[in-house]
């Protein structure tokens, strides 16, 4: 019995020891697993932190790049605005320069390189004028006539005398106005001396050269206006003069503007814009205006009804010239739109 009890006791010890050993082993294995989990956890946390730091670093770099890009955009915007401002200033300067060039061009028209001209006062008692008058006058001078003879005799007047020097040669441009008395052949001429005669006006134009202390006729041409009858005088004058070289061929272009009307008339005055170029006379016919009384539109209606007025009508010679010359002729007409009265100019 005791042996059995001892056996059972030993068996219990053995079982207890075996259980203890198994428990210890389980605890060790559990501790090892825990340690492994701690290592995995630590490594995972470390990897996450590293990844988070990398991501934060990348975000930081992206933010820095974004700030740089925004700064570059702001700089480009400022540069663009600055360029636009400079472009606006440049366009303004270009516009101002263009205006200055137009002004210079206007001045050059009357101040050609190598060409300087001036006008002699036509009623001045000058030996040059006396020489010109003695050679070019067809009739006695108007100022020598009495008022009575003035209505019955033809007479000449010196209307223009311009001198210039080019290539060491002296020139003169002269306009002589001849008022010729002609008989009135109209059936409605009426009675009396004044009704039987009329004024026929011719502007005789000359280019003179100064040779051996004397002026010699180099070129000449005429402009003739219709006759004024019924006891009224012709009121024709030259009202403008220009020298140009529009096509830069070093050849002087002579421009002058003639105005013609009959006194006591109510119609517009007639204009001739004349260009003498390369030995050829070119003319443009037009009329003057009188604000609030008649304009070009009024005259156009008259023309439709059969009136013989013309507005900026170029002759055959002028039609052969370039648009540059025609534009300048129209410009001179616009400058002299209101004629010698300068009304509303």
Q: Could you provide a short overview of the structure?
A:
This protein is of the alpha+beta class and 345 residues long. Helix content is 44%, strand content 26%.
Secondary-structure element order, as H and E? HEHHEEHEEEEEEHEHH
Number of strands: 10
Overall form = rod-shaped
The figure for the number of domains is 2
Could you tell me the radius of gyration in angstroms? 53 Å
Strand content: 25-35%
> Helicity, in percent?
40-55%
Biggest beta sheet attributes = 5 strands, antiparallel
Low-confidence residue ranges: 107-114
Mean pLDDT: 77
Strand order of the largest sheet: 1-2-3-4-5
Number of helices: 7
For this entry, what is the oligomeric state of its chains? single chain
Distance between the termini: 159 Å
Category from helices, strands and their pairing: alpha+beta
Can you lay out the helices and strands and say which pair or pack?
Layout: H1 2-109, E1 116-119, H2 127-136, H3 147-150, E2 155-166, E3 169-183, H4 193-196, E4 197-211, E5 214-224, E6 237-244, E7 253-260, E8 270-277, E9 280-287, H5 296-304, E10 313-314, H6 316-319, H7 323-335
Antiparallel strand pairs: 1-2, 2-3, 3-4, 4-5, 6-7, 7-8, 8-9, 9-10
């Amino acid at each position: 019995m005791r042996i059995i009890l001892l056996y059972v006791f030993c068996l219990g010890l053995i079982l207890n020891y075996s259980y203890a050993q198994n428990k210890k082993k389980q605890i060790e294995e559990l501790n090892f697993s825990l340690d492994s989990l701690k290592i995995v956890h630590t490594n995972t946390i470390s990897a996450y932190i590293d990844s988070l730091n990398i991501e934060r670093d990348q975000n930081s770099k992206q933010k820095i790049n974004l700030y740089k890009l925004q700064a570059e955009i702001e700089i480009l915007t400022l540069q663009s605005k600055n360029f636009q401002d400079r472009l606006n200033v440049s366009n303004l300067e270009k516009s101002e320069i263009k205006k200055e060039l137009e002004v210079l061009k206007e001045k050059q028209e009357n101040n050609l390189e190598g060409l300087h001209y001036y006008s002699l006062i036509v009623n001045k008692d000058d030996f040059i004028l006396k020489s010109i008058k003695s050679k070019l006058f067809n009739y006695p001078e108007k100022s020598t006539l009495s008022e009575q003879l003035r209505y019955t005799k033809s007479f000449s007047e010196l209307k223009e005398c311009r001198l210039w020097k080019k290539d060491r040669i002296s020139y003169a441009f002269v306009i002589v106005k001849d008022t010729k008395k002609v008989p009135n052949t109209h059936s409605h001429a009426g009675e009396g001396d004044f009704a039987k005669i009329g004024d026929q006006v011719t502007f005789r134009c000359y280019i003179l050269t100064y040779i051996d202390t004397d002026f010699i006729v180099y070129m000449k041409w005429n402009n003739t206006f219709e006759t004024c009858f019924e006891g009224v005088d012709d009121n024709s004058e030259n009202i403008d003069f220009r020298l140009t070289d529009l096509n830069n061929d070093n050849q002087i272009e002579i421009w002058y503007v003639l105005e013609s009307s009959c006194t006591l008339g109510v119609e517009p005055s007639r204009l001739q814009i004349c260009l003498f170029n390369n030995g050829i006379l070119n003319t443009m016919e037009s009329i003057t205006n009188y604000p609030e009384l008649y304009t070009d539109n009024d005259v156009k209606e008259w023309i439709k009804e059969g009136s013989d007025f013309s507005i900026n009508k170029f002759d055959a010679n002028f039609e052969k010239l370039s648009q540059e010359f025609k534009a300048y002729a129209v410009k001179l007409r616009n400058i002299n739109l209101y004629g010698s009265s300068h009304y509303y100019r």
